[in-house]
Each structure stands twice: as C-alpha cells, then as structure tokens.
Write a structure and sequence with these properties.
single chain; alpha/beta; Chitobiase, domain 2; TIM Barrel; Jelly Rolls; 3 domains; eight-stranded parallel β-barrel; seven-stranded mixed sheet; 40 strands; globular
C-alpha cells in the first residue's frame, strides 16, 4: 500500500488554508503509520457494528461478537448492535474490501471519519483494530471520541508472547482466562503455560521425596500424576484455548521432560535417574519413552483432542550434559511422536549444551532461545531451527529469588531490546528465522508467599513495554522516550471487564465509605447499595450505626471485590466474646482477613494457600479502631491510630544449606464481604473507609 498516496487523495480539492491535523493517538503497541485529519469520530448512544453483507467467515463473526461484548462492558448504558447494511455517522464498519490493505496476516487499515472503517486481509487484523479503538476510547472516557485520520498497523513479529510457570505456583483457571484478555488488549498473541515442574531440593531438607512438584492437568492414563493442590480439568483447558482463540491468543501447552520431571518420577519411581537426581528421567530406560509418549498421547489423540491448537511445547531443557547423546535421542523421539498428531513442535534451546552426533529434527521446529550457553542462536539457525527470543538476562522474572529479575529493568528493555536481541547477540531485525519474542515468570522458590496478585504487579508494566517492542521492534525509543511512554501508558488499563490489579478510582482518594443506614449499608461515594444478610443494625452515634454479625453465615456484600496495592482500609470492630478460630472479618474469593488466624488468636490474613498473622490480639467486647495498609512489599497494621507492626522482609532459613528464601507478606485487601458467607466473626462493626493510597501514620491518627 502507498500510504502517502491515500493521504494525498484525501486532501485533493482542499483550499490552501492550513488546519491543525490530529496528532497520532497513543496506543500500546504504537501504530506503525498515522495520517491525521481534523475533527473527531464520536460514539452514538446506539453503537452499530456494521457489515455490508452477512459474514460467512466464522472467525470474523466471533471477533465482532467479542468486540460487541467488550463495548457492552465498557458502556453498559449504550445499546450495541451488529447490523448488515451501509454504515452511517457514528457506526463502526467492517469493510470486506481489502484492495488497499497489504498482505499482512495481522495488519489492518483504520479509516476514522464520520464513521469508522476497518479493513484487513485476515480476520485477526480486524480484531487488533478493535483493540486499538478500545484503547483510544479508554483515554477519553467522558467524550468517547476518536481523532479522525488514517492508521495502518501490522506487527513486525509473528510471535509476541508470555510464558507463565503454573507448576511451582498454581494460578486459578479464572486468573488465566483474565490473562488471555489482558494479553489480547495489548495485541500479545502467544500464551505458553508451563504445566509441570518442581522446586529445589535444598529447600526441602535435600530430600527429593519431600521436594515440591506438580503436574497441573487432569490425566486419566496416570490419575495420580495430577496435582492435588491445584489443577485444571481437561474441559477447563479446552475452554481456555477456545477463549484464547476468541481473543486472538494462541495457548501453547508445555509439558517439560526429561529434566524438571519430579512430578512424573514420583509416580514412576523406577524412572528417576539415580545418577543425576529424581528430577531427571532415566532416559536410558525405555519406559521413560513409553510414559512420556502416553502422557502426550492422552492430550493429542482423537477427533477432539485436549490440545487442539496447532502447536505444542515439549520442554527439553537443562538435562545433564554428560548424557548428551541420550538426551538428543529422547528429544528427537518426542518431536516425532508429537508430530504424528499433526502438531508443530516447540522446545527449549539445549543443543549447544547437549552437543553430540545424534541428529535432532529441526525442520518446522521452533526453539525458545533462552540462554546462549545452552543454545547458541547462530548455530541453531544454521541447523534450521526457528527461534523465539526469550533471553533470561533480559526477560526472566523470578519473584523474590535474588537472581534474574524481581521486576524487569524496563528502561533498559525499552531502549535496547527487541526480538532480534538474543542474549548478548544482535541479529538483523528482519531475519525470517526469528519468529518473535516472549518474556517469562518462573516461580522457582516454592513456598515464598508470592500471590497471583504479586505476579500481576510484576507482569503488567512489563507487558506494556514488551507489547510495544514485539510489535514495532527497536524503533520505539527513537520515537518516544521511555519516560514519556511510561507517563502515557499509565492511562491505559487492562481491558474491558478486567481488574487484576484491583484499581479503584473515586472523587478523592476515598473510594469507599460505608455507613449503615436503615436496612442498607450505604456507600456514600456513589456505588450501589447492598442489602444486609443475616445481620442487623442499631444506632452507635450520630450518623453511624453499628452492624451486628452473628457468626457463621453472616455478612454484608459491598460493590468492590478487593483493592490492590497502595491502599489503606479503616474500620471499627467490637468482637463478641468467644469467637472461634478462623473467624472472618473480610472475605473475597481469593483472600480473607481474620479476627483469629488459625489457632493463634491473633489478627491475620490468608491468601493463595498462605496464612499470616500480626502480633496483635483484638480485644473482646471493646470497640477498637483498626487500619490496615498494603503495598507491593508488605502489609502494615495500626490500632487506635498507633502503628503496631509491618509484615515485610521475613526470611526462611534452611538447615544444612546457606540458601535463604524471602517470604512475601503482601495482601490485596478483600472487600466483597464484611463478615463471611460461611465463617463470619460474631460482634459489631462500624465505619468502613477504604482509601486508594497508603496513608501516613499522622493521617491515620487523625481519622
């Protein structure tokens, strides 16, 4: 397409008077090309998504329906309709004419005038255009306008990915579903899920039998393989892939072997390597082949396989180099077995580490190039492998481990990294064997207290930067400074209906302030009221009324599920005498704040399978003012305006090792229920105030 030619045609016949042209709207990733006009497109109260004729393409139909649902989530008071016909002012038109769009699989042309026109050669291009539209609208919530102009956009790289280790830290299926939508909002299209792995035995008394391991997917061939403390059913994983496809995100399941295989050798003890440790399969034993083939077979066979997308990751990293020939044989065998089911194979780069003569198939194989000492990129390309740039020294997040990154160095990544940078090697940006890039979260330190929310706190800012770099390559910093990018990116969130970071805005930093009123618990910041359930009110003083909780199924539901880091929650409580262990003050689906944590009698909280308590007992039958504040580093307690304790910086010490492990004691504060639908505290409650910032001790004392 001649972009300049289109712009010239648009201005033919216009007088010589100069009008200010609309500047390029800020979106992530950046538009590849923009030509501004004057004026704005504005949404109507009825949003029409228009096609000239019925669309037979099922994929495009699905994307349009997804877009319609997103618009309904953002604008619940507007009507959103999918129509056939000619577009009118204020409509969004999906145009089937692709003559002016280059043959770019994911590219699109966006023409913004009185109505908005989307052209693309492939349905996915049209879908990415809808993400651009939503991001622009998000930055103008009051006026719902988009600057007129023409945008052409297409990614520089085919694979724009994220890898998450769910094996050593379980993430709920709902969390993964939200991540699909989050990634899609930033046009990231590749979500690799690392399904099995294990911890380090030095953190488990140097005993493999006690070392944590998990295989997260339902397996009927070997039922005891599936983790008991968190797993996904086959149907859940199928539905996750379907959701991914509806949002343009390819789910890549990874089953890792022959290293990282402790979950497998705990089921088949005879397959544990006596030489290299129980996390290594004994690949000289033919049964190791049999077991791994059967595991893959369960998810690949039949007319409706569990892994129904085109690519599967077979792991194959970090095996003992002394077994290079056996390792190469095992890798080649696994590749060919998976390919029998018409799948394309991905694997971790390991063949420089495992040098040898045994051939390993390279044609149509994609390798995550993560450490050049394990797989020298130039050598892998020479062998015929395609590569995904996943360099550990740039893009590995290992929360609170003390190595790699806790939070990525995003300034450095933004200025210096793009998918053509693999470790310390720089390759041509247009090198066809470099398919793209991916960043990763590895939860190496099992038991360190990291929560799903903590991971998102690390991932979200990285996702914004890497979405930019994987889409447009290394020209990012030459067009926009990192500081400017950060400033502007703060105005773009997670996408329609997603709030993984627990962000809430109010007219001030007070986002919720509840005073009981009649038979309602009224939110004076404007959110909807909720009825009391098995609780009642009576006057306390002035406007305030106290609520009586009876214990058991006694609760009040608020409009907010939880609040994320950078908060202070203040309330007054008068516990009845004799509350039971684990009596709950606040709860949500993922966490709870307890009047009596476990059997300690002390105030505490639980989330993600971890239980913490402050060194403080809330007195019975006495009114106490409590304030809890939390950020990404820890959680603080104030009682009657006086600081009591900060939970942060705890270290676990292990016998017979010099290693230490940090313990993360953070909390997204649960707010869905005051009390609990199952195990509420008994007592009286008053005056909940929730602030979206960490208040100082002086301010807390003054409340």
């Amino acid at each position: 397409m001649n972009f300049k030619k289109i712009t010239t045609i648009l201005f033919l016949g216009v007088s010589c008077q100069v009008y200010a042209q609309n500047s390029e709207p800020f979106v992530i990733p950046k538009l590849q090309k923009w030509s501004g006009e004057t004026g704005f497109f504005a949404l109507k109260n009825t949003i029409n998504l228009v096609t000239a004729k019925p669309i037979s393409n099922e994929e495009l139909n699905g994307y349009i329906k997804t877009f319609a649902n997103d618009l309904k989530a953002v604008y619940p008071r507007k009507e959103v309709r999918i129509k056939i016909g000619a577009p009118s002012k204020g409509d969004i038109f999906f145009d089937s004419d692709t003559a002016q769009v280059p043959n770019a699989k994911e590219g699109y042309l966006l023409r913004i005038n009185d109505y908005l026109t989307i052209n693309s050669t492939k349905p996915i291009g049209s879908f990415w255009a809808t993400r651009t539209i939503l991001q622009i609208l998000e930055q103008d919530p009051a006026h719902q306008k988009i600057p007129k102009g023409i945008a052409f956009d297409a990614p520089k790289y085919e694979v724009r990915g994220f890898v998450i280790d769910v094996a050593r830290k379980f993430f709920t299926i709902d969390f993964l579903r939200d991540y699909v939508k989050l990634m899609s909002y930033y046009k990231l299209n590749d979500f690799q899920i690392h399904l099995n792995d294990n911890g380090f035995k030095q953190f488990f008394n140097d005993d493999w039998s006690k070392t944590y391991s998990a295989f997260r997917l339902q397996n009927d061939t070997y039922p005891t393989l599936t983790a008991k403390d968190g797993s996904y059913s086959k149907q859940e994983f199928i539905d996750l892939q379907k959701l991914g496809n509806a949002y343009g995100v390819n789910i890549i399941p990874e089953i890792d072997a022959p290293a990282h295989a402790l979950a497998i050798t705990k089921v088949f003890s005879e397959l544990a390597s006596k030489k290299y440790g129980a996390d290594h399969l004994d690949i000289s034993n033919p049964k190791s082949y049999e077991v791994m083939h059967n595991i893959f077979k369960e998810y690949l066979q039949g007319s409706n396989p569990v892994f129904f997308n085109k690519e599967v990751h077979i792991g194959t990293d970090e095996y003992a180099k002394e077994e290079a020939e056996n390792f190469r044989k095992f890798t080649d065998s696994t590749i060919k077995f998976v390919e029998k089911y018409n799948k394309k194979v991905r694997l971790w780069g390991a063949l420089t580490h495992a040098k040898g003569k045994t051939p390993v198939k390279s044609e149509n194989i994609t390798m995550n190039l993560w450490y050049n000492g394990f797989a020298e990129p130039a050598d892998m390309f020479a062998l015929g492998y395609s590569g995904i740039s996943t360099p550990d020294q740039w893009l590995y997040i290992v929360p609170k481990a003390g190595y790699y990154f806790d939070y990525l160095n995003l300034n450095n990544v933004y200025k210096k990294w793009a998918p053509n940078v693999i470790g310390d090697k720089v390759f041509p940006e247009n090198m066809p064997q470099i398919k793209g890039g991916a960043f990763a979260v590895w939860n190496d330190h099992v038991g360190n207290g990291i929560s799903q929310n903590d991971v998102t706190d690390r991932v979200f800012p990285a996702l914004q930067v890497l979405a930019q770099k994987m889409w447009i390559g290394n020209k990012a910093d030459s067009l926009l400074t990192f500081d400017k990018f950060q400033s502007l990116s703060s105005k773009i969130g997670e996408g329609p209906g997603i709030n993984l970071r627990g962000k809430h805005l109010g007219k001030s930093n007070l986002v919720l302030h509840y005073l009981s009123s009649g038979n309602q618990f009224k939110d004076i910041s404007g959110n909807k009221q909720q009825p009391l359930t098995n609780a009642n009110t009576e006057p306390l003083n002035g406007m305030k009324k106290m609520i009586h909780f009876k214990g058991g199924k006694s609760f009040v539901q608020t409009p907010i599920n939880e609040i994320g880091y950078g908060y202070t929650v203040c309330f007054e409580v008068k516990p009845s005498k004799g509350n039971q262990n684990n009596a709950v003050l606040f709860s949500s689906p993922s966490s709870s704040v307890k009047l009596k944590q476990l059997n300690t009698n002390k105030l505490g909280f639980s989330r993600d399978g971890y239980d913490y308590n402050f060194n403080y007992v809330v007195p019975e039958e006495v009114w106490t003012k409590i304030a809890i504040s939390g950020d990404s580093k820890g959680t603080s307690l104030y009682v009657n305006g006086i600081f009591v304790e900060r939970l942060e910086g705890k270290m676990q010490i292990f016998k017979n090792t010099k290693d230490k492990m940090a313990t993360v004691q953070t909390l997204f504060f649960p707010l869905k229920y005051i009390g609990d639908p199952l195990n509420s505290f008994a007592g009286s409650f008053a005056s909940l105030a929730v602030y979206n910032q960490v208040l100082t001790a002086e301010v807390i004392r003054s409340l």
